[in-house]
Amino acid sequence: MTSQHTAGTEPAPAANDTELSARFVNETLPYMSQLRSRARRLTRNPVDAEDLVQETMLRAYTGFGTFREGTNLRAWLLHIMTNTYISGLRRARRRPSEYLCDHTSDHQMAAQDRRSQSAELDALDALPNIELAGALATLPEQFRLAIYYRDVVGLRYREIAEIMACSEGTIMSRLYRGRRRLRLLLAAGAT
């Protein structure tokens, strides 16, 4: 049975930085293809995906001393990636758009700002049913993420629970409530 990684735990004992670095490489390397795949799904851009993987690995390496052996390393890495991605979205929303051309008119810049949206919104836009995309976008984040991880990415309850730092029962509850709200929203839109 594995326990969840929690913040504020004692760092894992390591003989030295070289040993810790070697352990990091040996233990994380098998998950690189999964991280790249997840990053491509999140960003929908291969260059941004590679940047996200690199930032995730940097943060994981920095915090690897606090990772407890025997816990789920894959879930820990995915949790770091999700938090890194969300932080990047928040940073991008606060930062004004930059334009390289001095000859861009105000109406062209305004149109570009309307087209610039997060990868999450791009993914919702790509859904075949516009009503479904709209209803999903209105759900609270905890329900939307649980549905995304389960129904889009295909993760197991245990993996979602570790990524979202809650119990499997909480995930099942969020999925049930989120799907129920989604059905109600879709039914209200159909009438």
Automatic annotation (TrEMBL):
InterPro entries: RNA_pol_sigma-70-like, RNA_pol_sigma-70_dom, RNA_pol_sigma70_ECF_CS, RNA_pol_sigma70_r2, RNA_pol_sigma70_r4_t2, RNA_pol_sigma_r2, RNA_pol_sigma_r3/r4-like, WH-like_DNA-bd_sf. One of its GO terms (biological process) is DNA-templated transcription initiation. Residues 1-20 are annotated as: Disordered. Residues 31-95 form the RNA polymerase sigma-70 region domain. The keyword Transcription applies. It comes from the Bacteria. One of its GO terms (molecular function) is DNA binding. Keywords: DNA-binding, Sigma factor, Transcription, Transcription regulation. This is RNA polymerase sigma factor. It comes from Mycolicibacterium smegmatis (strain ATCC 700084 / mc(2)155) (Mycobacterium smegmatis). The lineage of its organism: Bacteria, Bacillati, Actinomycetota, Actinomycetes, Mycobacteriales.
